[in-house]
Amino acid sequence: MKKIALAGGCFWGVDEFFSRKEGVLYTKSGYSNGQVENPTYEQVCSGTTGHAETVYIEYDENQITLKEILEKFFKVIDPTSLNRQGNDKGTQYRTGIYYIEEGDKEIAEEFIRMKAPKYDKPIVVEVEPMRNFFDAEEYHQDYLKKNPRGYCHIDLSID
């Protein structure tokens, strides 16, 4: 089983999107790469903690590769938008690929290099080690399963 963490704006949609993909075994919404221990949603939304809304993903690489996950990720985010996805604005909504295994850094960086010529603006997706990850509050977990009409900035029907 492999692990990666992706920040792509509001974590509700990213979590739901990846939970539906074959080979993805587990997803969890949380806050990563900030400076505050165990931040609350309100603290993260204040923009003062440095955290990004992030989805932690465990997947079976025999069913789906990291490159395939990143292809799907780039279909539902705007990788050229800094600190904004959909209607959500702020540093907590930045895009990022936070790797857990060092070898995934090269895969992510190469993926971005290959994608860059397809965009008119620079890709601003962070590629960094996952320095920390704190679970979001329970009401954020599987939010769109619990609230099917809840806000989502991405098209969940995309494969």
From TrEMBL:
The reactions it catalyses are: L-methionyl-[protein] + [thioredoxin]-disulfide + H2O = L-methionyl-(S)-S-oxide-[protein] + [thioredoxin]-dithiol; [thioredoxin]-disulfide + L-methionine + H2O = L-methionine (S)-S-oxide + [thioredoxin]-dithiol
Report whether RNA-binding shows up as a keyword of the record: no
Q: Where is the active site?
A: C10
What does the UniProt keyword field contain? Answer: Oxidoreductase
Oxidoreductase: is it a keyword of this entry? yes
A single BP term in Gene Ontology: cellular response to oxidative stress
MF terms in GO: peptide-methionine (S)-S-oxide reductase activity
For this UniProt entry, what's an example GO CC term? cytoplasm
Recorded hits in InterPro entries, A to Z, give: Met_Sox_Rdtase_MsrA_dom, Met_Sox_Rdtase_MsrA_sf, MsrA_MetSO_reductase
Any idea of its EC number? 1.8.4.11
Q: Hey, which family's this protein in?
A: Belongs to the MsrA Met sulfoxide reductase family.
Q: What is this protein called?
A: Peptide methionine sulfoxide reductase MsrA
Q: Which gene encodes it?
A: msrA
